[in-house]
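User: quick one, fold this
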Amino acid sequence: MEGADRPNPRRWDTEIVVVGDDATGLVARVTSLLFERGCNIEDLDQDVRDGVFRMRLHADTDGMVCKPETLEEDLADLGDDLGVDIRVRLADAEAARKAALLVTKEEHAPRAVLEACRDDRLDAEVPVMIGNHSTLRSLAEEYDVPFVDVGDEKGSHDERELLRVLDEYDVDCLVLARFMRILSPEVVFRYEGRIVNVHPSLLPAYPGAEAYRQAVEGGARVHGATAHYVTTDLDQGPIIAQRAFRVDPDDDAEDLKERGQPLEAEALVAGLQAHLDDAVVVRRGRTHFREGSTRTRTTSAASPRRPSERPSVDRRHGLAAGDRAPDTDVRRNRSRRGCGRDADAVPAVRRARGAGGVAVRRGRAARVAAGPAPAAVRTDRPDGGAGPPPHRSRTASTASATGGASNQSVPV
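Assistant:
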């Protein structure tokens, strides 16, 4: 099958991932073996983080001169010789749809994924749910999914056990459904480009813990959720899907959480669907949608759209026609408007300020009730009217050098 005809190119190529201690000659040894077996390397990427070496490559094995099982055995032997872990994922469209759910205590996100799989809205299989607490074991049992607890009494997860379970169930991708732990490079490198996380903010704003509290303290007027790929940099991976809602001035963190959790689930399902459909390509840390794929729109809870509607799409920004997303592309708005503000909101802000309806308290704008109009200030005016006196200049008469008089204006 020609590359241009492949609907999901990643699933037609064999992926090889090498992870271990950094050492000289690793790349040469692996690529030489592939060359000797008749494999054509189509893409190769390598990195070192915290002393951990990672190389990921995709190879076309159509012209391979040995059996796939032989290639796997030879690479495993080479890994033992080099002291590194070499994983081979052969081209397999079915295996590419096995998604492991990683959870902690919140059930809204994993339940949404399980529901979408059961209702055939997601063409995926969840072979296992893995948690760092046993809180959601009952949820896994409800959907007949095996549950494995890899956490200790404090919730710290055992990554060796995590990797063992992932190998046992032969999963292709990881879904972090509000998994409240940070994965080390040992895990991220082995599944790079295959870990989808949902974060409760419109990244890159408010990364890290307690995003709803951060948004309240930061005075956010728009908030939401982001599905993104996981990298070794916390909450900085390529963005796949986002959902947004407006924030009222008097909302607190609990208000945001109540309105945001349904959008977290929605964004996670949308991001996972885009990944499974191989609809996104990552280039220089940004996602791009493949031609002909169903694009993932950024939507706002303030202006819902019926599912039956199929809006036209702005190809430049991945938004449906008519959608405004000042929250998701700040740089673009700044270049167009000069200040990064929503132009429609400016008149409302001016009206609120003029009516005395906004007050700044502890760095946040809050609405206040309009007070009584101030009484007119009465002053003695030459014309007997009320109000402030008209502006005038005080003049002083000075003698000129010739003895004449002149009027020189003196500032008041």
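User: anything notable?
Assistant: Residues 1-10, 302-346, 373-382, 391-412 have pLDDT under 50 and may be disordered.
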